[in-house]
Design brief:
- By secondary structure, the protein is mainly alpha-helical.
- Helix 5 packs antiparallel against helix 13 and helix 8 runs parallel beside helix 13.
- The longest helix has 34 residues.
Length: 428
């Protein structure tokens, strides 16, 4: 960071924020690894795509509840409490999964794993809400896009680490097996939780004013539209990402577990790196007004990509010169990598906007509400990923993805600069 940047960040809060972020990074590794472990392990056991999607439904559903109430808890009691709770609950979820018996019936196994995944969903969103809310509290100035850069770096690094977690999950499943991989991750998080208890003392995010029930629902116009757009943006990714593509690569292209994990890792790591770099090539995005206009443009570009991939996979649309055996892999992998780049730009813009639209005193409430919408989108995308793939195949999930991005773009059209930005423009 530059000297100017350092002046905008109180040193004590900066150290606290660094500890919060380090804990979140460690958690993110286990979250990505756990997703690949569950997906590939239960596919290997013979679970159908819809069964596998069901394993993640409570994970996403609990994210809706956790973000809704977690923002209120963070605003009332401080983000330190929500972070510690998230780490502890994830450890419990990993240990619960490690106790699963392969001899159990499919019905009981699905129910048991859904409960464990529900705990993991609570843990994920508690830690995410804590870390993303904290950035608003330690960046004292939005001058020269400082807030945009910090939010982009945090979100991008988190997604890059989640991608590493995908690779880690595939490798651990091959090398350690399901149960021992879970033990290893639980042990690592226990060490991280102990370190966080010793280093994080400040109660970041506790509101100075009284938080009532009405504050859970009373949001500004911009936050409501942005949250609605977020639902469809993330549903457009998860409708193919959660079940369809990994199983297609394994079943139809005969990829190994670690190769599937590697691709998913490369996709998410690349997505995270691009996300962190977005402020560098969108240099004119210095406030919420310009970011909102950029979100509309990049959303339109994103909507084209899944449609083009689906068209390319349709028989008779194959590009000339491709061999029949190579074409699906080239079109799918190349297209999804490009989708990841453009999706990263959209996600970075949206993540900045929710923080920019929030007052510091209520940032945990607004971020919690926004990521509740994010969880609704992931829930819908997860359910549709298994259902549509099982009924109609991968191409259908991609067409649905394109339609969802278009809906997200429509919902970003009413966004504008918050009142303080509009006033500043008027005065200049």
């Amino acid at each position: 960071m530059t000297g100017a940047d350092n002046k905008a960040v109180p040193s004590g809060d900066g150290r606290t924020y660094a500890s919060v972020t380090a804990a979140y990074w460690a958690f993110t590794l286990t979250d990505g690894a756990l997703r690949m472990l569950v997906l590939l392990h239960f596919h290997q056991l013979g679970f159908t795509p819809l069964d596998i999607a069901s394993l993640f439904l409570l994970y996403e559903a609990m994210g809706v509840i956790t973000n809704f109430l977690g923002g209120w808890i963070g605003a009332r009691f401080g983000l330190r409490i929500t972070l510690f709770a998230g780490l502890a609950v994830q450890i419990a979820a990993l240990l619960m999964l490690s106790a699963m018996d392969p001899a159990w019936t499919v019905f009981f196994s699905v129910g048991y794993v859904m409960v464990a995944q529900a705990l993991s969903g609570v843990a994920k969103d508690l830690t995410k809400m804590s870390s993303k809310s904290a950035v608003k509290l330690v960046v004292a100035s939005e001058e020269d896009g400082l807030l945009f850069r910090w939010v982009a770096v945090l979100t991008g690094s988190k997604n890059a680490l989640k991608g590493v977690g995908f690779l880690l999950g595939g490798v651990m499943l091959e090398g350690l097996g399901f149960t021992h991989a879970l033990y290893a991750m639980a042990g690592m998080l226990a060490v991280v939780l102990a370190a966080a208890l010793l280093t994080i003392k400040a109660d970041l995010g506790r509101s100075k004013s009284k938080i009532g029930k009405r504050d859970l629902f009373a949001k500004t116009r911009e936050i409501n539209f942005l949250s609605a757009a977020r639902i469809f943006l993330f549903a457009s990714r998860d409708v193919w990402f959660v079940v369809g593509v990994p199983i297609f690569l394994y079943d139809q292209l005969s990829w190994s577990f670690d190769r599937v994990g590697l691709f998913m890792a490369v996709w998410v790591v690349g997505y995270g790196i691009v996300q962190a770099l977005v402020p560098r090539f969108l240099r004119r995005t210095r406030d919420a007004g310009t970011a909102a206009r950029s979100a509309v443009f990049w959303g339109g570009v994103l909507a084209l990509l899944p449609a083009l991939i689906a068209a390319g996979l349709t028989p008779g649309w194959m590009p000339a010169g491709f061999g029949a055996g190579d074409a699906p892999a080239i079109i799918l992998v190349g297209g999804l990598l490009l989708f990841g780049v453009v999706f990263a730009v959209n996600s970075a813009l949206h993540s900045y906007l929710i923080v920019a639209y929030s007052d510091a005193d209520k940032v945990a409430l607004n971020v919690g509400f926004y990521y509740m919408a994010n969880a609704v989108g992931r829930f819908a995308g997860t359910l549709l990923s298994g259902l549509i793939y099982q009924l109609a195949g991968l191409m259908a999930t991609l067409w649905v993805s394109a339609a969802m991005v278009l809906l997200a773009v429509v919902l970003t059209l009413p966004l504008r600069a918050p009142s303080r930005d509009r006033a500043a423009v008027t005065q200049t």
